[in-house]
Amino acid sequence: MLLGDIHSGCFFWRNPPSLQSCNRTFIAAHGGDTHHRIRKQAPAVVFIVWLAFFSANAWPLEYHSLQDIRQVAAQFLQSSVEDNGSRKHVQIGELDSRLRLSLCGSPLVPFLPPGVNPSGNITVGIRCSGSKPWKLYVSATIKTYARVVVLNKALPRYSKISAEDVRLDQHDVTHVTTPLLSEAKDAVGKHLIRSVSADQPLTYSVLKNPIVVRRGERVTLLYKSPGIEVRGSGTALEEGSTGKRISVKPHGAPRMVDGVVLQPGIILVSQTY
Q: Given 1.10.10.10, 3.30.565.10, 3.90.1210.10, 3.30.390.30, which CATH number is that of 145-208?
C-alpha cells in the first residue's frame, strides 16, 4: 500500500519513515519562506497518514457476521417448535450494528435458557466455544397460527349455537391458554355461558351442553353391572346436561342416588347414599 503526499514526495510502502525525515522532505520540496503555512501543517498531516496506516495494518481484526448469528438463531427455533399441525412464524430481533464479536473458529451453538418455552416473546442464546469464546442472547418472537372455530356474528349469553353461526378461520393463538375448538360440529347445539364477539375463537370454557333434564322431572334410572341391566324410575333433584352428574330420588326407595345424564330423561346410576 503506497502512502504519502504527491506534492511533498514523502511516500512509503508498508514501512513508514520517521516523522522527522518525512517532514524535512515536505519542507524542502516547497521552500522555507514561501510555504510557511504548509510547513506548520505538514507534521500533523503526516502523523494522521502514519496513524491510519499503523492502525489498519498492525491490528487486523475479524468480527463475526451479525446476520450469521441471527440465521443460526432462526434455524434453531424453527427446529425447536412443536409440529402439532399449527403454522409457526419465527421472527428474530435486530442486533445492534455497533456490536463487535470475535470471529468464531467453531460452529455457533444455539440454546434456550432454562425454563423458556419456545412460544411468544423469548430470548435464544448463541454461544461461541472457539479460541476467543463469547455468549450472546438474541430476542425473538414465535407466533402460532391455527384453524379454529369462530363466530360469524356476535351472540349474547345463553344463545344456542347453530351451524350457520360458526366457521373455521386462521387465527393467531400464540397467547391463548385455554383449549380452542377446531371442529365446527363441536359447537353446534351448545349454549354460550357468556356473550361472545364476532370473529372471536370459541373456547370450551364458554360453552355448555343444553339442559336435557329439568329439576323435578320424572326420569328413567339405569343400573348396570357385568351381564346385568336394571331399569327403574325416579325424580331428578337438579337439572343437568348430557354428561353431567346429578342427584336423583328413586321411586319407592328411601335413599338418593347419583347418576350421569346419558340423554334426555335417562340417568345412568353410579352411586347410592
A: 3.90.1210.10
